[in-house]
Amino acid sequence: MKEMKLSLTALTLIFVVFNVPILAQDEPEFSEFDFGRMWTFEDAPLNYFNETYDLELDQAWMDKMRKSALRFSTFCSASFISGKGLIMTNHHCSRGVATNLQRENENFEEDGFYANTQMEERKAEGLFVDQLIQAQDVTDKMKGLLKDNDAAEAEEMLKSEYEENEKWSDLRLQLVTYYSGGRYAMYGYKRYSDIRLVLIPENALGFFGGDPDNFTYPRYNLDFTFWRAYDEKGQPLNTSANFFPVNPDGVEEGTPVFVIGNPGNTERYRTMTQLKYDREVRIPAVLTFIKSAVEVLRSQYEENNDPRVMNSIFSLENGRKAYTGILEGLQNEEYMTRKKAAEDEIRDAVRSDFQNQDDPWDKLDIIYSEVEEYGAFSTLLNPSPYRGSITGLLHKLYDFLDDKTADSNKMALKDEILSMTPIDESQEMYLNVLVRDFNAFSDENVTPTDIGKIFSSTLFSDSAKVEEWLNSDDPETSDDPLIMLANQMIPEYKKAVELNQKYGKEIAAQNEAIANAAFRVFGDQLPPDATFTLRISDGVVKGFKYNGTVAPINTTYFGLYDRYYSHKKEFPWDLPDKWLNPTMDLLKTPLNFVSTNDIIGGNSGSAIINSKGEAVGLIFDGNIESLPGNFIFDETENRSVSVHAGGIVGALIHIYKADRIVNEILN
User: Fold this and answer.
1) DSSP secondary structure letters along 272-313
2) Residues 6 or more apart from 176 whose CB is under 8 A from it?
């Protein structure tokens, strides 16, 4: 039977003819949760938690949760999961550090690592974790100091005061700014620097599915690692007072769960003008840059199969997916309508505060009307390693020929130009994509000349000619194709940098005024943007609709093996030999699960706990629908993805035979 398709107009006629009422769609309204649920510990909404989830949490519970969580070096989160300093974080947070601990004939990427005894746990030099011991609101003190001192002086004075306080004297202090200056807090951390590797899975398990499965769910990933903190005497750290006991059976559909970690950065207080700039200029430029970088790197990898090149490709592809998701969110009409409704409500409430020319939204409108023309070029023409040495050479040539460059600097530039020439054919692809990307964002295309001809005709392909040219009294510049390119493109980059420098502080000041306005209107009902400081995010275990069906709350190891066989055992769905004869008990074990918690980059490695304070999982990703969370949080389909505690314990028991660790975390 032929499928019948009706246009929207035809459907409307049917409704009218048969007197079927057409229901008007409600205008999307913003929710306070559009700004997220990343609550600070010094101002967490305990009453809201208890009323929403029918709990009886108190401040003692909050304090224990805070001290059980960790900041893992400068890039991830972690937590204590036993009374003997055992630390849990992600495989993807650890693999760059762990591989440095390999010994002769070891390969952690292929075989993983497990210390059968405590003596075999390996110290990672330079690795540390920070535990938040004290957190205190200091808004009034800081604002009082700012009346007579600049920000740096006020911060130093406040830190000096806390250093003299016995409770804070041996801690690492950090002054944290929220709401762009609407609120301040002093944080005191205890640092532990003797961190030793206990267990890390093989890359095939810790990165199962690779980039294709990244930001997706259902998911099958054993993205965990165990470390241990040691004290000054070289003994396992006593953490018996503050750790998350592991419960492999601690969640089911609807279970309230909390993510305790350090989200890196969100931009949920950006104005509509800024969001439109992001949509039209900033994010497209970043995506263009990434696409071209991957194109060049893939060409290089085909020639040399260098795993470092493939790692760079993985990293860039991860960024591409993330930025694509943000861009799609910025193109979502409902999201943008909700953001505008929030902005209108804040502006209306504080309109009397900003008279004449003081309105920060209007000021940003004026700034971005000037910035947007050049905004893409600070990204596209940046002399990054991903742009090859040819881009750096264009910058050096432009600076050398610029009348505003001091003679002393020109001498240094001569040496730098000589060191970068002669250019070789490996740079031809870099120049091709550079010109292509520039033309995509420029009103006037640069040179139509074949790029290959530039390399054959420019004097910078000949060292002797370069040296002669650099040492001439009046270098001839008019007809060299490389110099022509430099003169066409680099001024656009310079203008972008100039505007960033000109308006950077003013944009920050207007953002501060707007965030302060939001804080005055809503107070701490709206959590501040993420700042890689400790937060608690509430949610529930809950599936979601996707791809015409429903995603279950958890996956199992059955699914991992299905993908292994369905993808013909090929990378990135391959498995090590030790995984090829699973028991039925392992196959039935939950592996990953989803919840409605609000997370972002930096939350990687965060424990996800139930109301008993038990670690029921380990955050490692979000689904594709979560990516707009950079600027708006929407729990309808936004999901955090965690390794299920049962999946970790199952691997410890059935694959790694890590009995001593199982006994440590379950007894």
Assistant:
1) HHHHHHIIIIIHHHHHHHHHHHHHHHHHHHHHH--HHHHHHH
2) 184, 185, 186, 187, 531, 533
25 DSSP 8-state letter: P
Instruction: Report which DSSP code applies to 20.
Output: P
Take residue 655 and report the two structure tokens written for it: 């694959």
- CA proximity to 531, closest of 41, 50, 167, 115: 41
CA atoms of 50 and 36, how far apart (whole Å): 18
Q: So what's the pLDDT on residue 645?
A: 98
Other beta carbons within 10 angstroms of residue 330's beta carbon come to: 22
Three-state DSSP class for residue 587: helix
Contact of 605 with 76, CB cutoff 8 Å: yes
Mean pLDDT across the chain: 92
**What is the bridge-based pairing of β-strands 194-200 and 122-123?**
antiparallel
Q: Letter for the amino acid at 92? A: H
Q: Are 114 and 651 in contact (CB under 8 A)?
A: no
Q: In this structure, what DSSP letter does residue 531 have? A: -
Torsion sign over Cα 101, 107, 112, 116: negative
Q: Are the CB atoms for 309 and 297 separated by under 8 Å?
A: yes
- What's the confidence (pLDDT) of residue 312? 87
Residue 291 corresponds to which tokens in the numbers above? Answer: 């696409």
**How far apart, in whole angstroms, are the C-alpha atoms of residue 85 and residue 81?**
7
Which tokens go with 36? 């997220």
Q: What is the DSSP string of 138-196?
A: -HHHHHHHHTTS-HHHHHHHHHHHHHTSTTTTTSEEEEEEEGGGTEEEEEEEEEE-EEE
Kindly give the parts of the chain with pLDDT less than 50.
Answer: 1-24
Q: Delineate the domains of the chain, giving CATH numbers in brackets.
A: 39-128+193-267+529-666 (2.40.10.10), 272-504 (no CATH)
Place of tokens 């974790």: 129
Q: Which of 188, 189, 184, 67 is nearest to 137 (CA)?
A: 184
Confidence at residue 13, expressed as pLDDT on a 0 to 100 scale: 36
**What's the pLDDT score for residue 523?**
81
- What was the pLDDT predicted at 447? 67
Residue 16: the pLDDT is 39
